């Protein structure tokens, strides 16, 4: 059985566990700013390694020093626990 989308109440609870993230366009979203492009790209590389290990890939964009990340589980048709797990791991990258 595949992964399921979370109910709105569960999403609200999970959102409390990932500081800095919000909901945008029905997806989990966070915007990061760095000192320059090299730092932004380095961050994206670290996130890419996490995402690949989880087999859960973000929708994202990079413009110079800004990285915007959107997470959703396409197979579930919405947000799932996988999105919040990846968001928490990304937050840990930023902290460490």
Describe, in plain words, how this protein is organized in 3D:
This protein has 96 residues and is of the alpha+beta class. The relative contact order is 0.25. Helix 2 (37-54) crosses helix 3. The model has no long low-confidence stretch (mean pLDDT 95). A hairpin with a 2-residue loop joins strand 1 (22-24) and strand 2. It is built from three helices and four strands, in the order H-E-E-H-E-E-H. It has helices at residues 8-15, 37-54, 81-95, and strands at residues 22-24, 27-33, 59-63, 66-71. A four-stranded antiparallel beta sheet has the order 1-2-4-3, covered by helices on one side. The longest helix is centred in the middle third of the chain and has 18 residues, at 37-54.
Summarize, please.
This protein is an alpha+beta fold.
The counted number of beta strands is 4
Q: What would you call the shape?
A: globular
Helix content: 40-55%
Strand arrangement within the widest β-sheet reads: 1-2-4-3
Taking the alpha carbons of the first and last residues, their distance comes to 35 Å
Total number of helical segments?
A: 3
Secondary-structure-derived class: alpha+beta
pLDDT averaged residue by residue:
95
Order of helices and strands: HEEHEEH
Largest sheet: 4 strands, antiparallel
